[in-house]
Amino acid sequence: MDLLSRSIERGSLPPSLIFAGADTRDTALAVAQALNCQKPVHSSQVPVDSCGTCVACRRIARGVHPDVVIVEPGENGSIKIDQVRDVVDRAGYRPFEGKRRVVIVDQAEALVVAAQNALLKTLEEPPATSVFILLTSMPDLLLPTVRSRCVRLTFAAVDETAIDEDARDVAQRVLQQAASLRDPARRINAAKELHPKAGDTGAVARDQLAAYLRAMASLLRDVEVLATGSPVGLANADAAATVERLVAAYGGERGVKAFAAIDRAIDALDRNAGAKVVADWVTLQL
Ligand SMILES: [Zn+2]
């Protein structure tokens, strides 16, 4: 927050930001408060901080400030293009009562590819009165074109998706099998490849499954990129043939739903859910 506070004080906060890490929503809200506070506090430790008690600060904390907009996944687990168009339109107007409009996109990895593309122009040249903050624990699942337009601040616990090839092989096999099997019992059988190995502790099993799930998410994101007609910026460019084989099954709505289910599964692992249960559940959702 120090760095952020200093740039807010100097008026040099970049208008398009990625907060990479887990649980960054409070930090983003603190930025929104510091930008809109009616009685900002200055001290030697923190150049500018919000008071936490004025009307603006309290409204932001309660999520009812008209100029602080939070975009998050809907019930199908993805953030759709309409949600993005709505905030892009609103960002064009002056703030209603605050000083700066702050648009916070929570779980930005859930933005469908079309929604990410719809954001590009705004991230490139945001209106002077707006700040966009994308929150994600999986920054590498955002399109390269989105990442390149934002200044990235990394907080603790980022899932760096340096997808290792073994994990990708497993991920691809499970996706392919799930695509061809309807029978739940046979799908559960396909999930065995994701199950913990004998002797793995709970934590090791969760880490291993998380690696498989990230590989799946990365493949599905690439499938979505290919399906929208642009082969540019594939995270798995070295495995383009693998990605292409998955397009027929996962190129549409099914891929978006599967991606959202994987996101939820990774979230469940973060909350210490058992790896085997999560593996079975997610395989049934693909
Ligand atoms: Zn305040």
Structural class: alpha/beta
Instruction: Say which molecules are bound, naming each kind only once.
Output: zinc ion
* Assembly form of the protein: single chain
**How many helical stretches?**
12
**Outline, from the CA principal axes?**
elongated
What number is the mean pLDDT?
Answer: 89
From the alpha carbons, calculate the radius of gyration and give it in angstroms.
Answer: 20 Å
Element order, helices and strands? HEHHEHEHEHEHHHHHH
Q: Please state how the strands of the largest beta sheet are arranged side by side.
A: 2-3-4-1-5
Helix content: 40-55%
**Main sheet attributes: strand count, strand direction, barrel closure:** 5 strands, parallel
Strand content: 5-15%
Low-confidence stretches: none
Give your account of this protein's structure:
The chain has 12 helices and 5 strands. By secondary structure, the chain is of the alpha/beta class. Zinc ion binds at residues 37-39, 50-51, 54, 56-57.
Q: What's this, in brief?
A:
The protein has twelve helices and five strands. With 286 residues, the chain is α/β, with parallel strands linked by helices.
Provide tags for this entry.
286 residues; alpha/beta; five-stranded parallel beta sheet; elongated; binds zinc ion
Write the layout of secondary structure elements.
Elements: H1 2-10, E1 16-20, H2 25-36, H3 55-62, E2 68-71, H4 81-91, E3 101-105, H5 113-124, E4 130-136, H6 144-147, E5 151-154, H7 165-180, H8 184-191, H9 202-227, H10 240-250, H11 253-270, H12 275-285
Helix pairs in contact: 2-3, 4-5, 7-9, 7-10, 8-12, 9-10, 9-11, 11-12
The chain binds zinc ion (ZN).
